[in-house]
Design a protein that fits this description.
Layout (H helix, E strand, L loop, with lengths): L33 H21 L1 H16 L4 E5 L1 H18 L6 E5 L17 H10 L7 E5 L6 H12 L3 E6 L12 E4 L14 H20 L16 H14 L4 H10 L4 H10 L3 H10 L4 H9 L1
Parallel strand pairs: 1-2, 1-3, 3-4, 4-5
Length: 311
Amino acid sequence: MIVNSALNVDPADRGHLLTEQANPRSAQLDQLSSLELVDLFNQEDQRTLEAIAGARDALAAAIDAATEALRQGGRLFYVGAGTSGRLGVLDAAECPPTFCTPPDLVQGIIAGGAGALVKSSEGLEDVAEDGAAAIAQRNVQAQDVVVGITAGGTTPYVQGAIAAARDRGATTVLIACVPADQVPTEAAIDIRLLVGPELLAGSTRLKAGTVTKMALNILSTGVMVRLGKVYGNRMVDVAVTNTKLRDRALRILCDLTDLDRPAAAALLDRSNQQVKLALMMHLGQLDAEAASERLAQHQGRLRPALEVGEL
């Protein structure tokens, strides 16, 4: 049986949640001109930056926990429903092309499955047992990290997933846009993104959605940086799977070496389209096999692998 304090919020009390309150600054929303609407949205969106700053310690803790989990062979899961679920799936889907991660390393779970990505299925968020079943289906283990995303904090599907993941020993994270005193959590890491009431009351695809996307950007990118998939500010593990990404790979090689574009292209081909390996080969003056071994000795982190060669 799934038990969590957030699931016990009386529906009659949900109107008191921060995400459900009416915003006094938009009381005349339906009377504004288009320009006034744009200006008001712009003013309100400034609050997303403040919310991220207010959650900086919790975000850093989540980065540290997920980094360590992935280093130990674990996985990172995002779980949500509606907009929150779509944002989690989006962030997970962008990791393989950006960082060349295996598709199962970062996974997005949304109530209703793939169909809910393009068609509203919000009614499916109300069953905590379904969230728990999704965790069981993916065989979540103690070395995994499960991030529950729910703007109002009360989504049963998400809370069921968090409870099930906690029972399996996984590290749990909650991302919500309501204060902890409104909806407490038993998640190990508690990220509260307090952007205040929406301009359109209750429409959490607005500020809450924006700040959630910002937090996920920080979390996933921060983890990949810590795992060595970035050199300087370049995505050296980018998957070279189309013309645009090959062009990006070549620009990275040209910028970080003394090579011109044809020479960079030849190097990229010799490295089997692996930018990091190509850089290790060129900067370390190694062949592909030796460069690959050097990177493996340093858990795929280019900078320490290069520094060893300088000693």
